[in-house]
Amino acid sequence: MDLTFPGSERKAMTNTSPLIQQVRAYWEALRDGTHLPARTLVDPRGLSGALEHTFLLEQIAPGMARFRLAGMHFFDLMGMEVKGMPLSALITPASRDRLAQDMGQLFAGRAILDLWLEAERGLGLPALKGRMILLPITGTNGQPDMALGCLETQGETGRKPRRFGIAQIVQEPILQTKPEVSAQPILGLAESQAPFTPTAGRPHLRLVHSRD
């Protein structure tokens, strides 16, 4: 599959990715100098405007990760719950090896991944483009074996499930010092976490219990 993502379209989507910008700014606000944010500091209240498009991944093998938490946008795209599913289930087979290679840098805590996506086309499958960001965080063992992510799409969902080919992956090296960002740290994130009670209606995020 020959994917194209013209520069003008990429620039337009970069300028209209407010949810990704929010999640990125939140992640930056949680950083402590050279240290990656810890999973225990990630609070849904700090991501209230982007929850439906936000997710958490955990590494399960080199180059492989599965969903621990996922917003309802993923249900809308796949027509099913994605909890416990590998991230590769959202990606076309032709692009999975490429994703696996780049995730090595993500889970080494050395890079942020910025993915430009284009969904398969066909009967009942209209044009659908997307942008996904993957930000490394540390798990319970202090290693960067988890990631906070956000996916924004432009276009109609159409027939489900929708899977995406990768037009481009940008690896952004993680700076050694915290850059200036517009968002301010959310107060109280370092305190003991209180149970999060979703508002009425469908939940934005669902917890996945990983059992070996």
* Rg result: 17 Å
How many β-strand stretches?
7
Average the pLDDT over all residues and give the rounded result: 83
- The proportion of residues forming helix, as a percent range, comes to 10-25%
| CATH structural architecture of one domain | 2-Layer Sandwich
Could you list some keywords that capture this structure?
4 helices, Beta-Lactamase, disordered C terminus, alpha+beta, 7 strands, seven-stranded antiparallel sheet, 212 residues
Q: What report would you give on this structure?
A:
The chain is α+β, with helices and mostly antiparallel strands and 212 residues long. Strand 4 (128-137) and strand 5 (146-155) form a beta hairpin. The protein has a 7-stranded antiparallel sheet, sandwiched between helices. It is globular and about 50 Å long. The longest helix has 14 residues, at 93-106. Helices cover 20% and strands 27% of the residues. The chain has helices at residues 7-15, 18-30, 72-78, 93-106; strands spanning 54-61, 64-71, 111-119, 128-137, 146-155, 164-173, 205-207. The model is unreliable at 178-212 (pLDDT under 50). The protein has a domain at 7-29 and 50-174: Beta-Lactamase (2-Layer Sandwich). This is PAS domain-containing protein. It comes from Fuscibacter oryzae. Pfam families: PAS_5. InterPro entries: DUF1457 (IPR009922).
How do the strands and helices of this protein lay out in sequence?
Layout: H1 7-15, H2 18-30, E1 54-61, E2 64-71, H3 72-78, H4 93-106, E3 111-119, E4 128-137, E5 146-155, E6 164-173, E7 205-207
Antiparallel strand pairs: 1-2, 1-5, 2-7, 3-4, 3-6, 4-5
